[in-house]
Amino acid sequence: MSYNGRRYPTAEHRFQISGHHPRLAEHIRGLPSPHEALRRRVVCAASSAAAIASGLTQT
């Protein structure tokens, strides 16, 4: 699929990169399957949530 002049292997790849840092978005765009795109997005979201939570608990 194509969006804003960029090619994406699948609509799932495009969906998973929305709102992410450009370098991470390029990484996800290059993954071989929709499953890998989803998995990488979930891993990154979990890492971000953990980092935010640890910042909230530090005094």
Strand-residue proportion: 5-15%
Summing up helix and strand content along with how strands pair, one would put the structural category as mainly alpha
The averaged pLDDT comes out at 80
Main β-sheet, in a few words?
2 strands, antiparallel
Q: What features would you describe in this structure?
A:
This protein has three helices and two strands; from the N terminus they run ββααα. With 59 residues, the chain is mainly alpha-helical. A two-stranded antiparallel sheet has the order 1-2. Strand 1 (2-3) and strand 2 form a beta hairpin. Helix 1 (11-17) runs antiparallel to helix 2 (22-29) and helix 1 packs parallel to helix 3 (34-57). The longest helix has 24 residues, at 34-57.
Structure described in brief:
With about 60 residues, this protein is mainly alpha-helical. The chain has 3 helices and 2 strands; from the N terminus they run E-E-H-H-H.
Question: What are the main properties of this structure?
Answer:
66% helix; 59 residues; elongated; 2 strands; single chain; mainly alpha
SSE topology sketch:
Layout lengths: L1 E2 L2 E2 L3 H7 L4 H8 L4 H24 L2
Antiparallel strand pairs: 1-2
Helix pairs in contact: 1-2, 1-3
